Amino acid sequence: MKLLEFQIDIPSIQDLTRALEGADSDASPRWGRMSAPEMLHHVADFGDLYFGEIKTSLFTRCVARLLGPFFLRTLTNKNPLGGTPRNLRTMPAIKASSSRVADWEQGLKRVGAMLKRLEMLTTETMKHPLYGTMQTPDFKALLLHHTAHHFHQFGLI
């Protein structure tokens, strides 16, 4: 997949790491139903999905490969700090759930580890489990975009 052309500024790994340091387990969302601990685990699960640690069905992968380019081109024009649509449908594998215990400290560690892992990426391309091979800067930008969207949801940025 050729390099995406992001038309918006996305917070850096360092910006999001600093924002994570100010996270509060009792914070209320500006929209949606997730709690702050659920949000952290959802963000970390999203990272796990991108790094291929959460498996997806063949059907999901086929749909993502077909519709992914359109979705990604649309997303590259949406500011994660208010421009990204809210309350989008989420894959069950990464959906926050109040029935699943969301430990705050573990969530902080998981998101911190995901951001460190992103920072360490040096390859030219990454194998995305849904969209196929993509440029590493795009892979990073999409993960940062999603994280920034949810950090904005909880007033962290």
Give structural notes:
This protein has 157 residues and is mainly α. The protein has one domain. Helices cover 49% and strands 5% of the residues. It has five helices and two strands; from the N terminus they run ααααββα. It has a two-stranded antiparallel ribbon. The longest helix is centred in the middle third of the chain and has 18 residues. The radius of gyration is 15 Å and the shape is globular. The model has no long low-confidence stretch (mean pLDDT 87).
Structure characteristics:
globular, mainly alpha, 49% helix, 157 residues, 2 strands
Measured as a percent range, the helix fraction is 40-55%
- According to DSSP, the number of beta strands is 2
Taken as a percent bin, the fraction of beta residues is 5-15%
Order of helices and strands: HHHHEEH
Unreliable stretches (pLDDT < 50, length at least 5) are: none
Shape summary:
globular
The radius of gyration over CA amounts to 15 Å
Distance between the termini: 30 Å
> Strands across the major sheet, in which order?
1-2
Largest sheet data: 2 strands, antiparallel
Structural class: mainly alpha
Rounded mean pLDDT score? 87
Number of domains: 1
Number of helices: 5
